[in-house]
Amino acid sequence: xxxxxxxxxxxxxxxxxxxxxxxxxxxxxxxxxxxxxxxxxxxxxxxxxxxxxxxxxxxxxxxxxxxxxxxxxxxxxxxxxxxxxxxxxxxxxxxxxxxxxxxxxxxxxxxxxxxxxxxxxxxxxxxxxxx
Length: 131
Description:
alpha+beta; RASSF1-6; two-stranded antiparallel ribbon; RASF1 protein; FERM_domain; 19% helix; RA_dom
């Protein structure tokens, strides 16, 4: 619980380019960052999911046969819920101007989750000295 002040520091183009080179030199995978001509940058982020509630996904397309004397209800949307395994990891390709809500939407689409995106939050986690 170290006190810190969050200040938004603007970097010039040369500083951004230098930081991207430093980052890419430390990466031992193909998840590199690149600098675009307009000054924005693109790269991959690793998202580790730690959900505490089940998520809803569309049910399979298999529709049970209607029972005798009961018509099959039309327009009924079927869904099922399950828990994602803790520590599930996804890599997303994003741009420097991608908003957190857009990252959440992209993750939900990747897992075909139909829950409201406002139920989810995105947090940054960093490790220091393996802690």
